[in-house]
Design goal:
By secondary structure, the protein is an alpha+beta fold. It has a single domain, classed as Nuclear Transport Factor 2, Chain: A, CATH 3.10.450.50. 36% of the residues lie in helices and 44% in strands. Strands 1, 2, 3, 4, 5, 6 and 7 form a seven-stranded mixed beta sheet that branches. A hairpin with a 2-residue loop joins strand 6 and strand 7. The relative contact order is 0.17.
């Protein structure tokens, strides 16, 4: 009985450590994106994404809500043209769900431009583990200037 409990405990520890390791790797991918943005480093920004990544923003205007698509190449080009330190997005990892090679991440954020608060919102990511590395496949966000604590 004692050895069965020890075996069960050992299996549980292995499962927890693997889950934690996957979560840490996912966070590292997302943090690398934001480090790349802050450094205006096109290669670092691009390396966080899968080759076929999709980027979208939910926009609310007086005409209503719509979704705007942004090509990854355009995003990388625009951010990498900024001066180092201009783009500073600060996220809080609120939810991470993992099933095999697929992960969903929800991160409320605040964005600062040239040191000044610009806007806040939520980033929602879908990541895929490709050749052992987590890559952002899909990113959709909201953006607002009010209701930011």
């Amino acid at each position: 009985m004692k050895s069965a409990l020890l075996l069960l405990f050992g299996v549980l520890l292995v499962c927890i450590s693997r889950a934690q390791s996957a979560e840490d790797s996912i966070k590292a991918t997302i943090n690398s994106l934001f480090d790349g943005m802050k450094a205006a480093d096109a290669m670092q920004i691009r390396s966080a994404f899968a080759d076929s990544a999709l980027l979208q923003t939910v926009q609310t205007t007086k005409e209503g809500t719509r979704v705007r698509n942004e090509p990854l190449a355009d995003f990388v080009a625009s951010v990498s043209k900024l001066a180092k330190g201009d783009a500073d997005e600060r996220v809080v990892f609120e939810t991470i769900k993992i099933d095999g090679a697929l992960a969903t991440v929800w991160t409320p954020y605040k964005f600062y431009y040239k040191g000044n608060f610009s806007h806040c919102g939520v980033d929602s990511y879908q990541l895929v583990r490709i050749n052992g590395a987590w890559k952002i496949q899909y990113l959709i966000d909201t953006r607002r200037r009010t209701g930011c604590e």
